Amino acid sequence: MFDKYLICEDSLRNVVEDGIVIGFELEVRITSYRGLALSMVEGFDVTVDGESFPREANIFLVRGRPFNFTEMETEYEVRWEMGEKAILRVPKAGGLPAGPHKIGVVEYLRISYAPVISEAADNKLLELLT
Amino acid sequence: MAVNDIKRGVSLYSFQEEYYLRKMSLEDCIAQCAEFGAYGIETIAEQMMPGFPALSDDFYEQWHGWMKKYKTVPTCHDMFLDTKRVKGRLLNDEEMVASLARDIKHASRLGCFCIRILVITPPHIMELCAPIAEEYGVKLLLEIHSPWHFTHEWIVKHIEVMERTKSGILGLMPDLGIFVHTFPSVIYKRSLRNGATPALVKEIIATYDDHGDVAGLPALIESKGGNKEDVGLARNVGHYCDVDPRKMINYMPLIHHIHGKFYEMTEDYREPSIPYDQIIAALKDGDYKGYISSEYEGNRHIQDAFEVDSVEQVRRHQVMLQRLIDGIN
Fold first, then answer.
1. What is the model's pTM?
2. Measured between alpha carbons, how far is B181 from B83 in angstroms, rounded to an integer?
3. Do B108 and B256 fall into the same domain?
């Protein structure tokens, strides 16, 4: 229900590891009205200027701690709290070029009392921070 | 003026938009309730108590400090039951009991007298948890939330368990959203903003308000060429219900807390969709002595186009409650 707040403004940047740009990341907030243990967060599909980055390869960082798609599935203790900004990291050699980018994120949540997986989407134009 | 003992409180659920955006902290929410004279504080740990269920002793100490500082009292803890926590299977009985036991201990540490039990909780789990609740002195109150209502088969099963459990530790908590007499305008106006067809929206709402064939609406609207928004609204109205508020009187021995659901408070202190005057009258007739917790649920319907002001909405709701409770119109 907080779909419009999923993608955080002013949060898109490239990720540099050992001097090499290995991808990009942005901040996201949960769309549910409460926090959830990561086992119930079924990942995030990302699109940038039309290019797709499916959820299986993306890394999710809660309070600085990274989880890959498989690790999230069995993480029953660590929670993503309501309104808390977490980082969504997308591997892409060379990262993104400078300038504005059309970012789309689809978040999948397994809500116990809902019959199907909740899919929430947000699209925003973000400027790459340097 | 009729003497009564109905007390006012707020569910901090009401302030979720402001909390989410970090415009208000947990303490701000509590202070705001006190300012409105709504001293009963209901909380949702999974919204506003990060770290739950592993909260520190310091947190609980601070919580009691706030209660003292603002002269507020803890009323209710709203629990959730993540039956789908493990991918591919549902929790078993033992896991569900453990989850609820965790909530009972938390509610007890906050000083709450009750827990809001999510309606999906199975009746036999309530029965298994009753002895734990008795040990901690925390009532487990099943939320009667639309589309469920008192005579729904699932609720009837729950009531059987409540009556069988003689200690009175199990009971009910009606959500006033079961008394939606006129369909909330904030909901269908959102559909219109999203592209619903005005003529069809009018027909859908009239069908609800006139107690027409609500169940047949999705098929009807589809046959009339309704778009996705039209059909979505047609389906959505089926999740609301218009129970007679006097129905509560029959269940009064089981009712210990109430969610004062509201969708929109107007400037002249009215909730156009829920007959609060009839509800308070019924509660007075039934000699209800508990709290009514304001529960604002309009933010999700207006946040696409408007700035949400939950504080003002709760203020108006509290003014209305006070007037009705005191018998001033």
1. 0.95
2. 32
3. yes
